[in-house]
Write a structure and sequence with these properties.
Elements (H helix, E strand, L loop, with lengths): L6 E6 L9 H16 L3 E3 L7 E8 L2 E8 L4 E8 L4 H20 L2 H26 L3 E3 L1 H15 L3
Parallel strand pairs: 1-3
Antiparallel strand pairs: 2-6, 3-4, 4-5
Helix pairs in contact: 1-4, 2-3, 3-4
């Protein structure tokens, strides 16, 4: 990918998201920050970037409205979030187990739980890559960061 194929701004439509706690808002901001820090993102038909991505949730679909930073539209891309539900639910459960284990478990148990957490995170990242394969090229690290954002968008207080 060319050096200018990346997301430079990402905005989330607050109207389409559930009300959350200040902690969840912080988690979302951190996920956005991490994604913007380093990413490779290229809509298939786009010759150049960088991009502004507007994210919204409409029923069971995540919508990505992509513009170049000069305002030229690069497309609207959407995918069903239904296939992500099990992974996200399992991911939250294992994250909770990880945080509980930090207080009382052995190092070996904490490492085992963390390996499971990373495995679920990788599974969600691959599912995201697969969901976008016909419309957007992104590398695995970008996919991982976007999956983190999707999880943050689904986190309930």
């Amino acid at each position: 990918m060319s050096e200018d194929h990346y997301i430079s701004e990402l905005h989330i439509d607050a109207q389409s998201l559930a009300v959350t706690s200040p902690e969840m808002e912080h988690e979302r901001r951190v996920a956005i920050f991490d994604l913007l820090e380093e990413n490779n993102f290229k809509p298939k038909e786009s010759q150049s970037g960088p991009y502004i991505v507007n994210v919204s949730l409409l029923e069971d679909r995540l919508l990505l409205n992509v513009l170049r930073t000069n305002g030229v539209a690069r497309g609207d891309f959407s995918f069903s979030i239904k296939p992500f539900r099990r992974i996200i639910k399992d991911y939250f459960m294992i994250c909770e187990a990880y945080h509980d284990a930090i207080r009382t478990a052995t190092t070996a148990k904490i490492e085992a739980i963390d390996m499971g957490r990373r495995g679920l995170h990788n599974e969600g990242s691959r599912l995201l890559e697969d969901s976008l394969r016909n419309s957007v090229e992104l590398d695995f690290n970008t996919s991982r960061r976007m999956f983190t954002l999707i999880c943050a968008l689904h986190r309930r207080p």
